[in-house]
Amino acid sequence: MKSVLDIIALILVLIGGLNWGLVGAFNFNLVDTIFGAGSVVSAIVYILVGISAIYGAFVFFQE
After folding, report:
1. How does residue 2 score in pLDDT terms, banded at 50, 70 and 90?
2. Of residues 44, 63, 55, 61, the one with CA closest to residue 6
């Protein structure tokens, strides 16, 4: 059974992946569009996505 932290991390990694897909395909940054380019909230989202990716890597290699 997955923990709440696992689910939150997965959602954040998916958001990050979708955002990078949009940047690569259409040069469109959804996070910056929603929260403002260079804003504190955008930076927090990027930091949380990065932490989630690191967490996900540890969870993936544990199992």
Report:
1. confident
2. 55
